[in-house]
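Exercise 7.
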Amino acid sequence: MHKVSLRMGTALVAVALVGAVQVPSLATGRGAHPSTSPQQVSSPLQRVGIVDFGFDPVTLTITKGTKVRWTNTGNVTHTSTSTTGAWDSGSIAPDDTFTQRFKKVGTFRYHCTIHTQMRGKIVVT
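Solution. The predicted structure, written as tokens, is:
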């Protein structure tokens, strides 16, 4: 019985120590907001929602080499089409996706060829 309570006591101390190490970082705000430092590495995949008749977000900033996935969450078909011909998704049906990798730095404007009022921009750094 004494060995069981000693093990439980040791486990509780370990949990308390782990919690004590993590809590101060939250109190200082570190980790509470994304880093804006130049060393920040972009996720290899970023997402753009096609919601009703708009892109969300309208402007997305990524690093070179990142893939962007457009997901149609609406009820009608859309496209993601570069204004310069760099890519054309073709029809993206409801619940379907299209993914494009951005290998060059620059600003890439795009639109839906079906609903021309839908416009977006990818900024690659």
